[in-house]
Design a protein that fits this description.
Elements (H helix, E strand, L loop, with lengths): L26 H6 L14 E7 L5 E7 L1 H5 L3 E6 L21 E2 L5 E7 L2 H10 L1 E6 L18 E2 L3 E2 L1 E4 L2 H7 L2 E9 L11 E6 L12 E5 L7 H10 L6 E4 L15 H13 L4 E4 L2 H4 L9 E9 L5 E13 L10 H6 L4 E11 L12 H19 L3 H7 L17 H12 L11 E2 L2 E13 L6 E8 L2 E5 L9 H13 L6 E4 L16 H20 L8 E6 L11 E13 L5 E11 L6 H20 L5 E2 L4 E2 L17 E6 L23 H13 L10 H16 L6
Parallel strand pairs: 1-14, 12-13, 16-17, 21-22, 25-28
Antiparallel strand pairs: 1-5, 2-4, 2-6, 3-5, 7-8, 9-17, 10-15, 11-12, 11-14, 15-16, 18-19, 19-24, 20-21, 20-23, 24-25, 26-27
Helix pairs in contact: 9-10, 9-15, 12-13, 14-15
Bound molecules: dioxothiomolybdenum(VI) ion.
Amino acid sequence: MSVRRPRPPHAELVGSAASADTERIDAPAKAAGTARYAYEQPVDDPVYLHPIVSAVAKGTITGFDTSRAEQTHGVLLVMTHENAPRLRVKTSGDLWVLQSAKVRHRGQFIGAVVAQTPQAARCAAESVEVEYREEAADLDFSFDRPDVYVPRRVNGMLRGRSSHGDVDAAFAASAHQVAGTYETSAHYHNPIEPHPVIAVWHSGRRWAPSATRLTLFEANQGAFPYHLSLLPPLLGMLPGQLRIVSPYVGGSFGSKLFPHPHLVLAALAAKQLKDRPVKCELTRRQMFRTVGYRPQSHQTVRLGADADGRLTAVDHQSWAPNSKTRRFIEQTVDATRMMYAATTRRTVHHAVDLDIAPATFMRAPGEFGGMFALETAMDELAERIGLDPIELRVRNEPDFDPETGKPFSTRNLVRCLREGAQQFGWSSRTPPGEHRDGEWLIGLGVASATYPNQHFMPSRARITCSGDRYSVALQGADPGTGARTVLTQLAAEALGVPEAAVDVVLGETGLPLAMLAGGSAGTYEWGNAIAAAAAKLRRRHGADAPSGSSAAAFGFAPRGSRRRSRHAFGAHFAQVRVSRATGEVRVDRMLGVYGAGRIVNARTARSQLIGGMTMGVSSALHEETYFDTRFGHVANGDLAGYHIAAHADINDIEAVWIDEFDEWFGPSGAKGIGEIGIVGVPAAIGNAIYNAAGVRLRDIPFTPDKVIVELENRAAATTAGISGG
Ligand code: MOS
């Protein structure tokens, strides 16, 4: 197999840097209901599984009373650790289900009932009585616990701690200083499609290395690498013996990256029952327990600047809870390492290990929380110096990545800020408290956004020519983003054929190994693979590839790209109104301006970006998790208690981008757009609240109870003759 690394520029591989406006090619099938999602896959004679969950956070199960469940009409199997098949290799703590009597977090799966109907399964599962020998669970997250530690590495293999120069001395000597403490709530993804699975155990063809032993129809963001590395050893099979099919996915936002324990539960039940497909769909409440969440954060930021507003000290530290069952520590302060030029810097992550359910990736994991704190602190510093917040950011624009010393592949943050200021009407911004409309105080805020290039491993694609059609196959997934459409465009471009001649096949194991849809990397990583496969096909067969010809290739990042610091950038602008009477905050309008490489499809990109911004508004104003530290559960763990933004909360919201083509990401010229839309949005809103009402909030969500207290404090301070602000 010959692998040729592309050398930028790739102008010969792309038609034009302009973006098309292609409708989603799977939109008609989705609208008509003919696009089959995991739970709708046709299987013969299915049965239904409902999990039994732990009611305690820590302890040992001493007994089950399953008599009522067993007598329930239609029940086929009551499975607990006492009778479940054994798993083989403990590849992940949370996937090791029903293997012992130990309980490690509340809501953990401790059993399952399988029945002829979902109703019977649920009713029977809820009738099972469980006795525990309960132990004291450690559930209380706080940053000042004695057992707080600094991990050597956090997610993404990034360093737990980084330090340049004497930040304490520089801070003490700085002309202007701000220091603040910031809090972000835990967040739950709640995609429209709950986590579904159909597990089909194929008995009888056991030992052939390539014979499928288990088929999982489920909703994932791609089976490679996590599913394919974690599940086969766990289940005692070879990777080729596990087939995973996930053709359509009803949203995920990171929640469908890792395989979750319900897959194992369904697989064990299917193995037990043989040849009866086992269907399981988690309830919303179960999704608040076993499919991960964004962990809460506590952060401190200290910024010192010289008289001109140039940063001399940046000290950003984070504290987060971590599950003892499976480690997950976000790289919260990592973006601060490359964001602004500062002569001294310290960035440190801290963690506390608790008896809680494992967290997982959620849209811009790390950058989301960290940039809320940093971008709020930047606004505070601008206010302290008396400088426009955009001007402060421009003055601290680095010439190269401050952490690595590498040049940026492209960095158009300043253009995003300036362009956004123009389009948003930034010059009409008034001092805090001056723009009023009856009970409402109105203000504008801005925050920068960034998201790193993630390059985990090369992806592979195969192009097969059949007649005058080209089939493009790779693993990966389209979680609803429009990936299938964008890849069709990129393939048509690379092959020099009409889009209508291209069929993209993804979402299934057995296809060429391409990485999952994560880290906002799909377009350029898969695009690189498709470009490489198309080039190989042309090399071998010329412009008129004969029917039946095919070529497969890995896509590599361009040679030299490791010597570049690769990130997408953006600027978020918000106009809010704050009620002086109730403390209610409404977001009137928002604008996101992005420098995210080439935008391949304007329509799907816009919807991805305003989707991120919408999620950002939701986290800024509504999303809040009440964790009960006595019992270890999310007290508001359903969509009645966990509030998310509704249509009425999202008014005038728009995303635009500057013309950019980043050859260092690959022939598509595209950077990632999946996650940057949420980064910095809560800071832009919080900064707008400050501009509207003169009150500074450092704790999301900005709910009326918090706002009203700050408004009252400010009123009292003003009355007492102390200047507000
Ligand atoms: Mo994203 S949190 O990598 O799906």
